[in-house]
Specification:
The chain is built from 14 helices and 15 strands. The protein is α+β, with helices and mostly antiparallel strands and 420 residues long. The chain has four domains: 126 residues, 2-Layer Sandwich (N Utilization Substance Protein A, Chain:P, domain 4); 67 residues, Beta Barrel (OB fold (Dihydrolipoamide Acetyltransferase, E2P)); 76 residues, 2-Layer Sandwich (GMP Synthetase, Chain A, domain 3), CATH 3.30.300.20; 83 residues, GMP Synthetase, Chain A, domain 3. The strands form four sheets. The chain has a five-stranded antiparallel sheet with strand order 7-6-5-8-9. Strands 1, 2, 3 and 4 form a four-stranded mixed sheet that branches. A three-stranded mixed sheet has the order 10-11-12, with helices on both faces. α2 runs antiparallel to α4 and α9 packs antiparallel against α11. The protein is elongated and about 110 Å long. It starts with a helix and ends in an 8-residue tail after the last helix.
């Protein structure tokens, strides 16, 4: 060993971003294994490297015992006292040996061991850096693909894998392409750190909306739920903490500018923004948009909902390949069963929504709630009668007045005396 070797070791540590002391310790361990396997089999070896000069010291370690059983690793007390009268049973003695005994095979073994140690150190550093990044969005560069359609993304210090199920449907990944990915999980296996990333995760859509929509970033508009089929269609339920802010309008932006900026990163994926509602019926109704639906029967225990849909709206509610109802079920958490009925007009759908709200508001209120519901229609009937009276016009009023005058004259006329 010499000074040039130490300089090379320092350069290697700097290039691989490894700790110099850790790398030196790994080299000492590799040399010890090489000596024990190829130079002095059976003996216990300890190697020490001077980090400044590069000088190597090789020592054979033997334990002091009363009776020797293994001459390679033990020395008798009698023999040890002759060398050093201060030794006692159980102590270890060091015996220097010539480093020049290193053979070609030992050098090759050392190279293999130190290479393995460097790889292990690099993997440990990568794992330490990314183990707390699960759940983050990271920008990486596509480094390669394989015949199983896995995409490997260079994250800077480590390489992540994106399997086909985590890719955006229809998106092509070219080497050198910069992509934003969501870190699903980071694990340490026997082959090193395993970093799983995704472009299909709902969290990526949420991150992009926070980047492009100020109201979402500052919390004025809250994202309550996301259901996504990457590359095709997504549904996002939003609500506003400020009554003066329209959450849907804020997300869409002027002429769709905000939502278009989001979809541009997602292969022009269609993103539906819907209003979240604490009432499960209304939330399901909104989630099935753009279809107009009728009555909704809920089974909260089994999380099932039976929804009546007009025959002209059924295909719209189901969506292409069942996508609309499937996304609505993911978004709301309810298993949605669509039942076809006769055509439901816009007025019918609005009346069903109003009835649902009144029924929920009247829960536990008894007859008071029912009378309020009836009052809604009695008020409408009174309004219709008033309108009909106005349309009758002055002629009807004159006829009514003449009838009243005739009745008054008849009451004032004297009764005729009977003929004698």
């Amino acid at each position: 060993m010499n000074k040039e070797f130490v300089d090379a070791l320092n350069t290697l540590a700097a290039e691989r971003n490894l700790d110099k002391e850790q790398l030196l310790g790994s080299l000492e361990e590799a040399l010890e294994q090489a000596f024990e396997r190829n130079v002095m089999p059976g003996k216990q070896i300890e190697v020490t490297l001077d980090p400044d000069s590069g000088e190597m010291e090789v020592l054979v370690i033997r334990r002091v015992v009363e009776e020797v059983e293994d001459e390679d690793k033990e020395i008798s007390l009698t023999e040890a006292v002759d060398l050093d009268d201060s030794v006692e049973v159980g102590m270890e003695m060091e015996f220097p040996t010539d480093p020049d005994k290193f053979t070609r095979i030992a050098v090759q073994t050392t190279k293999q061991v130190i290479t393995q140690k460097i790889r292990e150190a690099e993997r440990a550093i990568v794992f330490e850096e990314y183990k707390d990044r699960a759940g983050d969005i990271i920008t990486g560069v596509v480094s390669r693909t394989d015949n199983k359609r896995n995409v490997f993304v260079d994250l800077g210090r480590g390489e992540a894998i994106m399997p086909p199920r985590e890719q955006i449907h229809g998106e092509r990944y070219m080497v050198g392409m910069r992509v934003k990915v969501y870190v699903e999980k980071v694990e340490l296996s026997t082959r090193g750190p395993s970093i799983l990333v995704s472009r299909a995760a709902p969290q990526l859509l949420e991150y992009l909306m926070r980047q492009e929509i100020p109201e979402v970033a500052d919390g004025t508009v809250e994202i309550k739920a996301i259901a996504r089929e990457a590359g095709q269609r997504s549904k996002v339920a939003v609500t506003s903490t400020n009554p003066n802010v329209d959450p849907i309008g804020a997300c869409i932006g002027h002429r769709g500018s905000r939502i278009q900026a989001v979809t541009a990163e997602l292969q022009r994926e269609r993103v539906d923004i819907i209003m979240w509602d604490p009432n499960p019926r209304e939330f399901i109704r909104n989630a099935l948009s753009p279809a107009k639906v009728g009555t909704i029967e809920l089974d909260p225990e089994d999380m099932q909902a039976k929804v009546t849909v007009g025959s002209d709206q059924l295909s719209l509610a189901i969506g292409k390949g069942g996508q609309n109802v499937r996304l609505a079920a993911k978004l709301t958490g309810f298993k949605i069963d669509l039942a076809s009925s006769e055509t439901i007009s816009d007025l019918d759908a609005a009346m069903q929504a109003a009835a649902s709200r009144l029924e929920d508001a009247a829960a536990g209120a008894g007859e008071h709630g029912r009378s309020a519901f009836d009052a809604l229609f009695s008020a409408a009937a009174a309004a219709e009668e008033s309108a009909a009276a106005e349309q009758a016009g002055p002629a009807s009023s004159t006829a009514a007045a003449e009838d009243e005058a005739t009745e008054a004259d008849a009451d004032e006329a004297p009764e005729e005396e009977p003929a004698s």
